Amino acid sequence: MNLIIDRFEGDYAVVELPDRTFVNIPKKALPEEAKEGDIITITVNKSETERRKDNIRKLAEDLWE
Amino acid sequence: MNAKQLLACLLIILTVLLAACGSTALKEPVQTTEAETGLKVHFLDVGQADCILIQAPTGENMLIDAGNNDDADMIVTYLNAKGVKKIDVLVGTHPHEDHIGSLDTVIDTYDIGKVYMPRVTHTTKTFEDVLIAIKNKGLKIAAAKAGEIIDFSPNTRVEILAPNSPEYDDLNNYSAVIKLTYGNTSFLFTGDAEDISENEMLASGYDLKADVLKLGHHGSSTSSTEAFLAAVKPSYGVISVGKGNDYGHPHEEVLTRLEQAGIEIYRTDESGTVLFATDGDHIVIKTEKTGRTAKDVTVYITKTGKKYHMGDCNLLKDSRVPIKLSEAKTRGYEPCKSCKPPQ
Lengths: 65, 343
What we know:
The structure holds two protein chains of two kinds. Chain A is α+β, with helices and mostly antiparallel strands. Chain A contains one helix and four strands. In chain A, strands 3-2-1-4 form a four-stranded antiparallel β-sheet, with no helix packed on it. By secondary structure, chain B is of the alpha/beta class.
């Protein structure tokens, strides 16, 4: 999904969603170089999700009684 | 009494009458309807956004900004109720959604004269919608830039005071800043212009003095520097702002600056839509919601006196203690007869 940064207000970026509604996203959740007018693409990172699931599963396995 | 004496007598009467007319208090809020036939400036309550309708006594309409995307119905309903058929001058101060959100609907709905926007673009669908609406209607955009005069109505002077530079880092500073003068009264509409643009206006040597200032950027501390407020020296400040907005607008430090400068504040989050009507000398203010604003105007008392005063009263030389009007009255202070503060 593409979000478009309309403006920055204080600690927030105000972004336009595809349906033309607007939401606040904390600035710190965005790359530092993000500017007004930039398009932010949000995707699900499947390989990273699997990798973390594996890591956490391994960590947890030894901890259950 | 001979003819000569009669003439002298008439001359004296005429002089006294003229002097009496001349001493009528200027630019003070009066509880009469005389101003209501003149120029009207409506600050629409569109939440955390801007939308200002200006109606000239000769029937022309100017709209400065058009709220958020979801304000379209409210704006159209309001404009219709005020008899708007044509918008002679339409201004999009800068391309942020809280200023141009419903411009497309306004363009689609009304007969449009001239469109002014600063020469800058944006990537949002909201901005694209505005461009498409302009294109579909066969209109062109006049570039809003400092020094341009807008032809609005025969008895008004409308001048663009900013932007003064061709490029800025932040879209806010591209804001078209507009000074409207009608008779002896004037208004300054600043969009979201920040300190950078304010400093440029100060450096350009424009006459920034205005009776009513629409504060820049919803009362954010990015705008309304002390130097700028001192140059505009408004009696009234209007803050177009949404109740409980996420950005802390208006910022406390700006409210303090306004209070210290003795500027009477009207906020759309508290007052709803605010209407200023003027006959060119007097200003009448009406707010959609009654209460707080009118009661809690800041007035000034002295350490020893029994009267309360306006911030610019000559009788405040020795001491000036700010106090809410309601409290001044509770404590038994009377309105000053010289500066005629609100009662």
